[in-house]
Design goal:
- This protein has nine helices and seven strands.
- The protein is an alpha/beta fold.
- It has a single domain, classed as NAD(P)-binding Rossmann-like Domain (Rossmann fold).
- A seven-stranded parallel β-sheet has the order 3-2-1-4-5-6-7, sandwiched between helices.
- α2 crosses α7.
- The radius of gyration is 19 Å and the shape is globular.
- It is found in: Membrane.
- Catalyzes the reduction of all-trans-retinal to all-trans-retinol in the presence of NADPH.
């Protein structure tokens, strides 16, 4: 009897975790993105690039910030060849002053910003004792602090729009910890906390809708060499980008978790640490990052 009740309760909790945020999130479906202007950080490669391509194909004007000059040039050529509207800017979003100036340039050109996608990210993939101060600061700067700098620079103008969206790309590692990723996991936990606090601050500003995206491992260069457990195949950047842009079309809001299996994370967090370590050993997760070289 107790076991049946526990299983039923867990199943009900999963349904609530999956569907209730979508029902309660303020949504105003966008029939078209043609009148939208999006800023995408870290958009020259990987997931960011795929998001930019989809936004541009949908008619959205896109401003792309990245430190990869060559990647920005090739992206601009690709978008313009398809008739899209794009501007690129070499920006280190970990630097507050640089980000503020880039925001001013974007507003001078486009007059408004209606969508902000905080996507920039780096990973060091080293044990804590092998991380340098510079690597830790870089990870925190790009993955977490950049969300503060970009949002603070653009939120005032976004509040003036009839509808605006802030999309923060976090990770399932914003809810759990993994060996050799202490700085990365901490930064993504911070992004989730930033998103939730931002939602609270904007509770009386329903025209600005924050969304946080928590995907599993994506098959991009950042995590080259990772060993995937059999039950957690990597996501493709194309698939995740499709889901992100679809959520934008829906009006945004809530937490987008990919794949849905990870809606079980709240139950995982209730386990004692000894069981989490045992599960990581048995599934191979404990050493899954050993061969990852990192990107920072």
């Amino acid at each position: 009897m107790l076991l049946t009740f526990a299983v039923a309760t867990a199943f009900a909790a999963i349904l609530v975790a999956v569907f209730l945020p979508q029902l309660l999130s303020p949504r105003r479906r966008l029939s078209s993105l043609a009148d939208q202007v999006a800023v995408v950080s870290g958009g020259a490669q990987g997931l960011g690039r795929e998001i930019v391509l989809r936004l541009a194909a949908a008619g959205c004007s896109v401003v792309v910030w990245d430190v990869d000059r060559a990647g920005l040039e090739s992206l601009r050529t690709q978008v313009e060849a398809s008739g899209g509207r794009i501007a690129t800017d070499v920006v280190d979003v970990s630097q507050s002053a640089d980000t503020k100036l880039a925001a001013e340039r974007a507003l001078q050109t486009w007059k408004k910003v209606t969508i902000l996608i905080n996507n920039a990210g780096v990973v060091s993939a080293k044990p804590l004792l092998e991380l340098t101060d510079a690597q830790i600061q870089r990870t925190m700067g790009v993955n977490l602090l950049a969300c503060f700098w970009t949002t603070r620079a653009l939120l005032p103008t976004m509040k003036e729009q009839p509808h605006a969206q802030i999309v923060n790309i976090a990770s399932v590692l914003g809810h759990i910890g993994v060996a050799r990723l202490s700085d990365y996991c901490a930064s993504k936990h911070g992004v989730v906390g930033f998103h939730e606090s931002l939602c609270m601050e904007l509770a009386d500003q329903p025209n600005v809708v924050p969304t946080v995206v928590c995907p599993g491992t994506i098959s991009t260069r950042m995590f080259d060499g990772i060993k995937h457990p059999f039950f957690m195949p990597p996501l493709t950047p194309e698939y995740v980008a499709d889901c992100v842009v679809d959520r934008i079309h829906q009006g945004g809001g809530g937490m987008l978790v990919l794949p849905r299996l990870f809606h079980l994370m709240p139950f995982y967090r209730l386990l004692p640490m000894s069981l989490k370590v045992l599960a990581a050993r048995l599934t191979g997760v404990l050493h899954s990052v050993d061969n990852v070289k990192g990107s920072s």
